[in-house]
Fold this sequence. Notes:
This protein is of the alpha/beta class. It has 4 domains: 2-24 and 151-238, Glucose Oxidase, domain 1 (3-Layer(bba) Sandwich), CATH 3.50.30; 39-145, PtsI, HPr-binding domain (Enzyme I, Chain A, domain 2, Orthogonal Bundle), CATH 1.10.274; 271-390, TIM Barrel (Alpha-Beta Barrel); 430-589, Phosphoenolpyruvate-binding domains (TIM Barrel), CATH 3.20.20. It is built from 23 helices and 16 strands. It has an 8-stranded mixed β-sheet. Strand 9, helix 10 and strand 10 form a beta-alpha-beta unit. Helix 4 (103-119) runs antiparallel to helix 6 and helix 13 (372-385) packs across helix 14 (401-421). The chain is globular, with a radius of gyration of 26 Å. It starts with a strand and ends with a helix. Phosphoenolpyruvate binds next to strand 10 and helix 17.
Amino acid sequence: MATLAGIPTARGLVAGPVFLYRGDGEIPVPEYVVEPGREEEEFRRFERAVVDTKRDLENLISVLRERTGRADVRVFECHLMFLEDPTFSDEIRSSVTKDHVNAEAAVKSFTDRMRVQFSRMNDPYFRERVRDFDDVERRLLMALTGFAPDTSLELKSPAIIVADDLTPSETVRLPRENVLGFATNGGSATSHVALLARAMAIPAVTGLVDITSRVRPGMTVILDGGTGEVTIAPNKETLDLYESRKRHRHNIEKAEPEGCPAGTFREGGEVKIFANIHPGVAVSGLRDLGARGVGLYRSEYLWLNREREPTEEEQFEAYREAVEQTAKLSADASITIRALDIGGDKTVKGISAKESNPFLGNRSIRYLLSNREVFKTQLRAILRASAFGKVNTMYPMVSCVEELTEAAVVLEEVKRSLDKDGLAYDRNMPIGAMIEIPSAAINADAIATKVDFFSIGTNDLIQYTMAADRSNEAVAHLYQPTNPAILYLMRRVIAAAHNHGIPVAVCGESASDPILGVLWAAMGIDTLSMSGSYIPVIAKLLRRLSRTELDEYAALANGFDASATAKSVFDACHAWMLGKIPELDDLLA
Ligand code: PEP
Ligand code: MG
């Protein structure tokens, strides 16, 4: 039995067998004859691949050392030594220069020979090293060919997926009914696999660094998405403890007072609690969880996993269904459809251009403004759906007012085309800006004059303010919602919205965090939008607090100056919440 500590990513406690997803389709190994005179060039290609592979391994080792302090970086150090071994590079040089074999084929032939030699050894330790050759060979071939494997997941019975990492496309392809949980080496609390796990109410732990090399298919693991712990091969005592914790949690989650809408404070006010969804998530289940509307509909999932763009008709059908379903959630329900948010880690085949830095590239609203036909088609479909219920549209990744001015021109043009075609739509459909780029937060006063509402995407706002990739576990510690710089921007955006009389929501994952979601409500956020499974806990916490207490909570966080650390602010917030709700940690467990 062993327990690993990762990043708590999506709440829930599960136990089950491991499905080890290696994402490792065969890497095609090209074989060709190196033309005379080009041998040096080919050998340099091999040397560059070695440098890249070594850099990846060194990063992995330093993450392992820093994050876990574990001694078992040894295996990766051996891989490094193998790459540095002069016999290895001499062998490849000789194959390339004397036999005119290309670099990939030379590497494959060398590792094949090593595998045969080692598998014949008597000592089981050395026989095991065959797997190390597989590993190093795979890394080198990937560096040489640029091949990114993508195999589909064949999951026939319920299991916990253990993987290096999963792309959004891989995640949405999973048969939901058989996925008990996710445990990944990479990722972070706000990576897209995390968002999907939450939207699908699947417990997940990310940032486990090397769990894929610690488990075998079929092995039992216990995964706690709330604490970030994964126990491998638990003994009987641990399994019994798991069963009793599971029963305890179930009882806590069940005990909800009747007839009190989610988001109501103990006295003196309320905040709207809405859900984040994407195409394919059933809206019906959200009612029981207490969602009063949909605050973020991630439309880009209509673009994933398909060979061509969705047509206007396909989009219209999807939006109309979501609009009609949302209307059943509450009397004042509305759905906020986010315009196509692609780029960064959300790449779409055939659309996403190759960019040297896609996170700072032609993404989201920028993409839509430079691909007007895609933008117009989507706006037509959304507007047509607005005839069937209360719909808002928001633009992702707004960075300056000009983008909103330009988008307004496109919107007017689309409205005219619908008028011409005699199609019904809501002429006053509210338009919002997502505030997730620091420039938009700093300039929120001006942005507020151009829109009907704000929705703060804290996942990206924190990523871009801290310059820390949200899906890179090595910098996950810099995802700091309570950093004074983030609190400053939050205050600024809320004040700008309210000065201009427009509502402001938070739809990033922090809305569902018990300490932060309540803090945003205390600071004046009008709507918290989160994955459905988190709503009951946030609603329960808000019901325990009065507006006066929330003002006290906001004053506490606002009392920290710029020199405070994110941890000191978070700890003070946690302590304050514990003072008001002594069983807080039980609720979160
Ligand atoms: C965010 O950035 O907080 C957000 C809600 O958008 P995304 O889909 O990028 O997480
Ligand atoms: Mg975002």
